[in-house]
Amino acid sequence: QVQLVESGGGLVQAGGSLRLSCAASGSIFSINVMGWYRQAPGKQRELVARITSGGSTNYEDSVKGRFTISRDNVKNTVYLQMNSLKPEDTAVYSCYADIWTTRLMRHDYWGQGTQVTVSS
Length: 120
Prior knowledge:
Blueprint: E1 2-7, E2 10-13, E3 18-26, E4 28-39, E5 46-51, E6 57-59, E7 67-72, E8 77-82, E9 91-101, E10 106-110, E11 114-119
Parallel strand pairs: 2-11
Antiparallel strand pairs: 1-3, 3-8, 4-5, 4-9, 5-6, 7-8, 9-10, 9-11
């Protein structure tokens, strides 16, 4: 069994900052890509940022320069530092991880989602 547990969402004023965390635990052999998606009401889910095990990153265009993704491979944790937040960043943010389990099965796992609300 593998679990992803998120923390760090909440309500913040425009221009403020939040830091999301997502810790993976359980029968983990190795973790490939980790990342964050978001979904706002009435909109499709979109990839916000992703990071490989080697540290290479990709960002959705609207968050470049404002969000930073990082990971701690010892703690099996991925972070999303969100600065200069805008009301349009309001969404449910979900982390995911591409994991090889100890049974050598590869699967994408998802966190439960955390609400980020940015007030104007």
